[in-house]
Design brief:
Blueprint (H helix, E strand, L loop, with lengths): L4 H22 L7 E2 L15 H7 L2 H9 L8 H8 L3 E5 L5 E4 L12 E2 L8 E6 L6 E6 L5 E7 L9 E5 L4 E5 L2 H9 L1
Parallel strand pairs: 1-9
Antiparallel strand pairs: 2-3, 2-9, 4-8, 5-6, 6-7, 7-8
Protein backbone atom coordinates (compact mmCIF):
# COMPACT_ATOMS: atom_id res chain seq x y z
CA UNK A 1 0.00 0.00 0.00
CA UNK A 2 1.51 3.36 -0.99
CA UNK A 3 1.63 6.30 1.35
CA UNK A 4 -0.72 8.29 -0.92
CA UNK A 5 -3.39 5.61 -0.84
CA UNK A 6 -3.80 5.55 2.91
CA UNK A 7 -5.11 9.14 3.27
CA UNK A 8 -7.50 8.52 0.36
CA UNK A 9 -8.84 5.40 1.99
CA UNK A 10 -9.29 7.22 5.26
CA UNK A 11 -11.18 9.99 3.46
CA UNK A 12 -13.38 7.40 1.80
CA UNK A 13 -14.17 5.77 5.14
CA UNK A 14 -14.97 9.17 6.67
CA UNK A 15 -17.40 10.03 3.83
CA UNK A 16 -19.10 6.66 4.08
CA UNK A 17 -19.44 7.00 7.84
CA UNK A 18 -20.96 10.47 7.50
CA UNK A 19 -23.41 9.52 4.73
CA UNK A 20 -26.34 8.46 6.96
CA UNK A 21 -26.10 11.76 8.84
CA UNK A 22 -25.97 13.73 5.60
CA UNK A 23 -29.09 11.94 4.33
CA UNK A 24 -30.96 12.57 7.56
CA UNK A 25 -29.96 16.23 7.55
CA UNK A 26 -31.10 16.68 3.96
CA UNK A 27 -34.47 14.99 4.40
CA UNK A 28 -35.44 15.18 8.06
CA UNK A 29 -39.22 14.74 8.16
CA UNK A 30 -40.50 13.44 4.85
CA UNK A 31 -43.63 11.52 5.86
CA UNK A 32 -44.58 8.21 4.29
CA UNK A 33 -48.22 9.33 4.21
CA UNK A 34 -48.10 12.23 1.77
CA UNK A 35 -49.75 15.37 3.17
CA UNK A 36 -51.62 17.57 0.69
CA UNK A 37 -52.66 21.19 1.19
CA UNK A 38 -56.08 20.72 -0.38
CA UNK A 39 -58.33 17.99 -1.72
CA UNK A 40 -56.94 16.82 -5.07
CA UNK A 41 -59.11 16.78 -8.20
CA UNK A 42 -61.42 13.77 -8.01
CA UNK A 43 -61.36 11.36 -10.97
CA UNK A 44 -64.51 11.60 -13.11
CA UNK A 45 -64.39 7.92 -14.02
CA UNK A 46 -62.58 4.72 -13.13
CA UNK A 47 -58.80 4.89 -13.42
CA UNK A 48 -57.05 2.13 -15.35
CA UNK A 49 -53.31 1.91 -15.92
CA UNK A 50 -50.87 -0.75 -16.99
CA UNK A 51 -48.45 -2.17 -14.43
CA UNK A 52 -45.65 -0.16 -16.04
CA UNK A 53 -47.66 3.06 -15.68
CA UNK A 54 -48.46 2.29 -12.03
CA UNK A 55 -44.79 1.65 -11.32
CA UNK A 56 -43.97 5.14 -12.60
CA UNK A 57 -46.49 6.92 -10.37
CA UNK A 58 -46.28 4.84 -7.16
CA UNK A 59 -43.44 4.17 -4.76
CA UNK A 60 -42.31 0.50 -4.75
CA UNK A 61 -44.09 -0.03 -1.41
CA UNK A 62 -47.30 1.61 -2.68
CA UNK A 63 -47.14 -0.55 -5.79
CA UNK A 64 -46.65 -3.70 -3.71
CA UNK A 65 -49.69 -2.88 -1.56
CA UNK A 66 -52.10 -1.33 -4.09
CA UNK A 67 -51.40 -3.52 -7.10
CA UNK A 68 -50.16 -6.74 -5.47
CA UNK A 69 -52.37 -6.81 -2.36
CA UNK A 70 -49.40 -6.38 -0.04
CA UNK A 71 -49.48 -5.32 3.61
CA UNK A 72 -47.33 -2.70 5.30
CA UNK A 73 -45.44 -3.48 8.49
CA UNK A 74 -47.62 -3.14 11.60
CA UNK A 75 -46.77 -0.53 14.24
CA UNK A 76 -44.24 1.13 11.94
CA UNK A 77 -43.57 4.71 10.90
CA UNK A 78 -46.86 4.86 8.98
CA UNK A 79 -48.94 3.99 12.05
CA UNK A 80 -47.04 6.57 14.09
CA UNK A 81 -47.75 9.25 11.49
CA UNK A 82 -51.41 8.25 11.29
CA UNK A 83 -51.92 8.41 15.03
CA UNK A 84 -50.37 11.88 15.21
CA UNK A 85 -52.53 13.33 12.42
CA UNK A 86 -55.43 15.61 13.37
CA UNK A 87 -58.67 16.17 11.47
CA UNK A 88 -58.67 15.62 7.73
CA UNK A 89 -59.60 13.40 4.86
CA UNK A 90 -57.74 10.46 3.36
CA UNK A 91 -57.45 9.96 -0.37
CA UNK A 92 -56.21 7.03 -2.44
CA UNK A 93 -52.50 7.34 -3.26
CA UNK A 94 -53.22 5.65 -6.58
CA UNK A 95 -55.98 7.89 -7.94
CA UNK A 96 -56.68 10.69 -5.39
CA UNK A 97 -60.23 9.53 -4.69
CA UNK A 98 -61.49 10.43 -1.21
CA UNK A 99 -61.96 7.25 0.82
CA UNK A 100 -61.87 7.93 4.56
CA UNK A 101 -61.88 10.80 7.04
CA UNK A 102 -60.75 11.44 10.58
CA UNK A 103 -64.43 11.49 11.64
CA UNK A 104 -64.54 7.68 11.31
CA UNK A 105 -60.98 7.13 12.53
CA UNK A 106 -60.57 5.24 15.81
CA UNK A 107 -57.74 3.74 17.78
CA UNK A 108 -58.02 -0.02 17.43
CA UNK A 109 -54.46 -0.61 18.76
CA UNK A 110 -54.02 -3.12 15.91
CA UNK A 111 -50.96 -1.44 14.41
CA UNK A 112 -52.65 -0.28 11.21
CA UNK A 113 -54.81 2.78 10.48
CA UNK A 114 -58.40 1.95 11.43
CA UNK A 115 -61.75 3.45 10.48
CA UNK A 116 -65.23 2.25 11.38
CA UNK A 117 -66.64 3.34 8.00
CA UNK A 118 -65.51 4.94 4.75
CA UNK A 119 -66.29 8.66 4.41
CA UNK A 120 -67.37 8.09 0.81
CA UNK A 121 -68.98 4.65 0.73
CA UNK A 122 -69.35 4.58 -3.04
CA UNK A 123 -65.58 4.94 -3.44
CA UNK A 124 -64.79 1.80 -1.45
CA UNK A 125 -65.65 -1.72 -2.56
CA UNK A 126 -65.09 -5.10 -0.99
CA UNK A 127 -64.27 -8.58 -2.22
CA UNK A 128 -63.51 -11.91 -0.58
CA UNK A 129 -59.92 -13.10 -0.53
CA UNK A 130 -58.40 -16.39 0.64
CA UNK A 131 -54.75 -15.36 0.69
CA UNK A 132 -54.27 -16.64 4.24
CA UNK A 133 -56.27 -19.80 3.63
CA UNK A 134 -59.53 -18.49 5.05
CA UNK A 135 -62.05 -15.94 3.89
CA UNK A 136 -61.33 -12.31 4.59
CA UNK A 137 -63.12 -9.28 3.23
CA UNK A 138 -60.70 -7.27 1.17
CA UNK A 139 -61.18 -3.50 0.82
CA UNK A 140 -60.37 -1.92 -2.54
CA UNK A 141 -60.60 1.55 -4.03
CA UNK A 142 -63.67 1.48 -6.30
CA UNK A 143 -62.09 3.95 -8.72
CA UNK A 144 -58.62 2.48 -9.44
CA UNK A 145 -59.23 -1.03 -8.03
CA UNK A 146 -56.23 -0.63 -5.71
CA UNK A 147 -55.94 -2.89 -2.67
CA UNK A 148 -56.32 -0.87 0.55
CA UNK A 149 -56.62 -3.46 3.31
CA UNK A 150 -59.36 -5.57 4.90
CA UNK A 151 -62.54 -5.00 6.90
CA UNK A 152 -63.39 -7.04 9.99
CA UNK A 153 -66.81 -7.09 11.64
CA UNK A 154 -68.09 -7.93 15.09
CA UNK A 155 -64.85 -7.55 17.03
CA UNK A 156 -66.60 -5.63 19.82
CA UNK A 157 -65.14 -2.18 19.25
CA UNK A 158 -67.26 0.59 20.76
CA UNK A 159 -67.95 2.29 17.44
CA UNK A 160 -71.22 2.96 15.55
CA UNK A 161 -70.65 0.09 13.09
CA UNK A 162 -68.51 -2.44 14.99
CA UNK A 163 -66.45 -2.67 11.81
CA UNK A 164 -62.72 -2.20 11.55
CA UNK A 165 -61.46 -1.04 8.17
CA UNK A 166 -57.84 -2.07 8.62
CA UNK A 167 -56.09 0.07 6.03
CA UNK A 168 -52.50 0.40 4.83
CA UNK A 169 -51.59 4.03 5.53
CA UNK A 170 -48.86 3.81 2.88
CA UNK A 171 -51.52 3.98 0.17
CA UNK A 172 -53.34 7.01 1.60
CA UNK A 173 -52.75 10.74 1.11
CA UNK A 174 -53.78 12.98 4.01
CA UNK A 175 -55.56 16.30 3.48
CA UNK A 176 -55.86 18.23 6.77
CA UNK A 177 -59.18 20.02 7.27
CA UNK A 178 -58.85 23.77 6.82
CA UNK A 179 -59.15 25.28 10.33
CA UNK A 180 -62.12 27.46 9.38
CA UNK A 181 -64.14 24.58 8.00
CA UNK A 182 -63.36 22.29 10.88
CA UNK A 183 -64.46 24.69 13.64
CA UNK A 184 -68.25 24.59 12.99
CA UNK A 185 -68.28 20.79 12.89
CA UNK A 186 -66.54 20.66 16.28
CA UNK A 187 -69.26 22.77 17.89
CA UNK A 188 -72.05 20.28 17.15
ZN1 LIG B 1 -57.76 4.62 -6.03
Amino acid sequence: MTSKLVPRLLLGVAVLAATPFLLIAADPVKPIIEVLKETPAQPAQTVEKTDEEWKKTLTPEQYRILRQAGTERANGQVYKEFKEQGGGTYCCAGCNTELFSSKEKFDSHCGWPSFYDPSKAKNVKTATDYHLGYARTEVRCAVCDGHLGHVFTGEGYDTPTDKRYCINGTVLKFVPFPEAKEAPAEKK
